[in-house]
Structure formats: C-alpha cells, structure tokens
Amino acid sequence: MWGTYKIIMEHRVLGENAPIIESKFITFVDNVYIQICLAITMKEIKRIKHFVTDSIYQQLECQLQELNDRKLIHMFDELTVKQTTLLSFEENDEAYKIKVHITSLYLDYYLNESGDYVSGNRESRIQKENNCIFCKRKDTKEESIVHRCPGCGKAIDVNGNGMCDYCGSVYDLTHTGWLLTSWEVF
Fold it and tell me: What is the pTM of this model?
C-alpha cells in the first residue's frame, strides 16, 4: 500500500529529481519522537520547537508545566521505537500530509526533583501506540544540506535541538520541511 504513496510523494512532494526514500522519512519521524521524549525528560521543550507546530508546542508546554507544578520528572528510560508505519498520504491546495503510526517501548516512570523514584514502571518496558500527522507546505523552499541559523548564519543541527549554539536562535522548519501537526498517544 505504501508504494502508491511513495510514488505520489516522489513526484509531487519533492519533484522528480529528489525522490523521497521511505526509510529516510521514517528515520526523521523516529528522531522527532525521540527528541520530544528527551525534551520532556530534560525539561527543555524549546529543543523541539522547530519540529512542531505552535499548537503542538503549546500542548507540550502545558504538559511540562503540569510536571513542574507537581515537581516531577517524566522518565522515558530505555526508549526505543519498535516500529513506524506510514499510514496514508494526502494533499490539499496548501500542504502535504502524512499520517504515521509509531509503536514505542520504554520504562515509563516519574522522579521527584531530587531524583527519587515516585511512581510508574521502571522494571519492564511498556508499549505505547502513537498516531502522528506530519505536514509540509507546498511552498517550501529547498535548502542545502547545511542549515544556517536565522540569527547569525552559523551552521545549525536541525536533527538535534535546532538551536544555534552561538546565538540561541531556533531554526524554523515551517518553510523548509515537515512539521508534527498532531500527536495522539493511546
């Protein structure tokens, strides 16, 4: 089934000279998922701002604020992405949309600010199912392999935290790449 979507994406999303490789997109999705979990644990949500829409960012900020109010750290220990499945591809006049299902495994528990165990499962990894939607605007600009900081022009790692090590500016993927627009855990 994905083969049909892949062909559509190769020609419509990236053009005939830049075919998308399914495994490359899945690697990107897995990285975004892991970076979000890491940002929640580290309480550094700004690290993932470049990967998500403003509404997702606000949801994650609220989640982090709840943890801060309760003086808790949410741990995603031994995190691994077991499987990522591309479910569907859609397009409208303005954007492309890919629906994705992620199955992850991790030790899901909470620590207090002193690092003491509070609750959750730290003995065996639990399986979590996630449905996500990634969107890319049709008017995105092609960029070189090296991404530049919008503030100072230095090279920036968008696969990591997307923040410039020199000036602290956050790289914006809105006009150049895929953004997480919906995330549902069940």
Answer: 0.79
